[in-house]
Amino acid sequence: MKKYLLITTSLIFLLTWPIQAQEISTGTTTEFGKRVTPVRAAMNSETNYLNQLARRGFKLDTQGLLIESLDSSTVYAELNSDVGFNPASVIKVATSMTALYKFGANYRFRTGFYADGIINRKTRTLNGNLVLVSTGDPTLMTIDVSRLARDVIRAGITRVNGNLVLTGPFTYANMWTTERATRGLQLMLRKIGIRVSGGIKQGVPAGTELANHESVSLRDILFFQNAHSSNPTAERLGEAIGGPKAVEEFLIEQVGISKSDVQITHTSGLDFNRITPRGTVQIFRELVYWLNLNNMQPQDILPVAGMDVGTLQRRFNSLDYRGGIIAKTGTLPGTDGGVSTLAGILYTREKGPILFAIFNSNGSVTTYRKLQDDFLKKFITECGGIPEASALLHRSN
């Protein structure tokens, strides 16, 4: 996945930011393939931010920071970039990327009941198994499952002389795991008048379709999840892609983050997770790469600050900064002494697109947000402001 990263990111610069093309580095490798140490830029905004943290009594060893150019040739700000911090909901970006890589942006989750046997219309009995084919739709609600179950009754079945067979992950409403959702489904079937004589079995799709439900596209699910920082959506999407370990393995094997630099226990970012600022920036770098190859832009799955509804709607919403940041927030007031994170992409007039990750812990979430906003506003100003094109970055839908 990373093989053509430098070529592709340079191409993104040339196609998307032509006015900046003359400033683009050829990457962090020479023509002979040797790694080149990134240039360390001196930024007044970084110095001011670190001074503000210290002045307010926050310990710098509980703060993480990395701001890099898209092609990784220049580091604009850095603090504890290789230390693991709690990313909070920023980990939803990793969950999103794992899902995109596994399913594709236009994937739609399907859920349906199938009759694997003969239906006796007179006795309204299925002599065989009732099969639930599910791919783990993270937007499936109780009303959707109820409709599917009632369609089974409309198909002439009120009794099943066999098992309820489940295929794939299955969640709905506030039932975030397959096990819990399965128990909920059992109760619902019984409540509306469908009796299953057998037990619950795991199996494979089989039989004749009785009812089905299809979700919206994955890209739309991800935009909602990330714009509103929806924990239920992210937890259920995590179930669909194999759980926290699947996301962790993806980051290690596909993104190239060191095993010691990442630990994921919840795909939503709840509770205790760990990743480094450097690993987070790498996730965004690879995400931009993947989106570019699939004719997509970051704003297709992430909110534009100051423009899109959700957690970033009221941040960076003045004319000087609106449209200049596409990012993901993270907030855990009661974990690790208070966690506030912000990571994403900055669009600047003089430096082009820039990746950033800011991790704050052991302090006031409200104060940290103000410091983050002040820091990034000063940083953008120091880079010549935002380009005019940034005002058009919000989603058309």
List the helices and strands and how they pair.
Layout: H1 5-16, E1 39-40, H2 44-55, E2 63-69, E3 74-79, H3 91-103, E4 108-120, E5 125-134, H4 142-154, E6 159-160, E7 164-167, H5 178-192, E8 195-196, E9 200-202, E10 208-217, H6 218-228, H7 231-241, H8 244-255, E11 262-263, E12 274-275, H9 277-293, E13 325-332, E14 339-348, E15 352-360, H10 365-382
Parallel strand pairs: 1-3, 5-6, 5-7, 6-8, 7-9
Antiparallel strand pairs: 2-3, 2-15, 4-5, 4-10, 11-12, 13-14, 14-15
Helix pairs in contact: 1-9, 2-10, 3-6, 3-7, 3-9, 4-5
Would you give an account of this structure?
- It contains ten helices and 15 strands.
- Residues about 1-25 and about 30-35 have low confidence and may be disordered.
- Strand 5 (about 125-135), helix 4 and strand 6 form a beta-alpha-beta unit.
- The strands form three sheets. Strands 4, 5, 6, 7, 8, 9 and 10 form a seven-stranded mixed sheet that branches.
- The protein starts with a helix and ends in a 15-residue tail after the last helix.
- The protein is of the alpha/beta class.
Determine the N-to-C terminus distance: 30 Å
Total count of strands: 15
Strand content: 15-25%
Write down the overall geometry.
elongated
Give the tags.
397 residues, D-tyrosyl-trna(Tyr) Deacylase, Chain: A, 2 domains, 6-stranded mixed β-sheet, 15 strands, 34% helix, elongated
Task: Write a compact overview of the structure shown.
By secondary structure, this protein is of the alpha/beta class.
